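Provenance

Sequences were taken from public entries as deposited. Structures were produced by running a predictor on each sequence independently, with no templates supplied. The record for Methylenetetrahydrofolate reductase from Azospirillum thermophilum is shown for reference.
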Amino acid sequence: MTSAASSAAPAVSFEFFPPKTEKMEQSLWQAIERLAPLRPAFVSVTYGAGGSTRERTHATVCRIQKETGIPAAAHFTCVGATREEIDSIARTYWEAGIRHLVALRGDPPESAGGIGGRYEPHPGGYAYAADLVAGMREVADFEISVAAYPETHPEAPSAQFDLDNLKRKVDAGATRAITQFFFDNDAYFRFLDRCAAAGIHVPIVPGILPITNFARAVEFAGKCNASVPQKLADTFDGLDSDPETRHLVAATVAAEQCQALQAQGVNDFHFYTLNRADLTVAICRMLGVKAKAAAPSPAPAA
Ligand code: FAD
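Predicted structure for Methylenetetrahydrofolate reductase:
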């Protein structure tokens, strides 16, 4: 897919994780206060491995939507729960006014090795994300997003199997895919072409990871099957003890990646914010997404 570049400011969405402590809660809300004026299409809140953040995810999603008015999506996984339990959690979201779910298989719990560990479907649970999407469709008329992997999910037996799996998720009712983060735009564009050829026609929104810690990003990329171009490694080389330069470089690198995508017609971006606003705000500005001014207060009566 390489449609003409659009001059309209892109639609953006922001992903957060549920805070564990009071201090983390404060930094999340500081981030939300800076990001909310950018008027994202939606925000989403992750679900900890093995369902470990069920209540915190619920509380965070509901609070963000209530206090900012921005549609908030709850991530949801198949791990560690029966279908009845998952359906009942979904119903509580619907009753709380949450209309968008990000339906995932989920990573194995830490006890089973976490990311890259061995996944065992829960007996009586939804086995894979496609099953979860179909189940959520039965619960209520949710908007459902799913995960996609431009460089193939690490456990997939083949790239074709993984593509067929994405098609199953869309056929089951997903209306948007959000990609695993990637640094190689060509891999994303090749993936879009393969999706189109496979008859997958929902938006495949690129997931963008602004790099706050390069060593950790490389480690995570290894687990997720995201390649790290040598040029990127060279750019961050030697900056471990220079956080200020690293930060400027991180903003530039991610903005360049997004601008290159935008130049090829991409007009939706999902940011893995890691609950920090600064890099995402800077990158959004480079893409033409600026804070919307608050409505002027009425003039005082004479
Ligand atoms: P699936 O689509 O079910 O696929 C998982 C693997 O199983 C793939 O390799 C697929 O090819 C294979 N597969 C599918 N169906 C079958 C079958 N019938 N038989 C055999 N193999 C099959 N994880 C969390 O724990 N919490 C989160 O909040 C979270 N948010 C995420 C958000 C995004 C945007 C992304 C990209 C990932 C997120 N993850 C999250 C990580 C995700 O849970 C993992 O990548 C997980 O390993 C796969 O989830 P999935 O929904 O892609 O699974």
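The chain has ten helices and eight strands.
The domain at 11-287 is CATH 3.20.20.220 (TIM Barrel).
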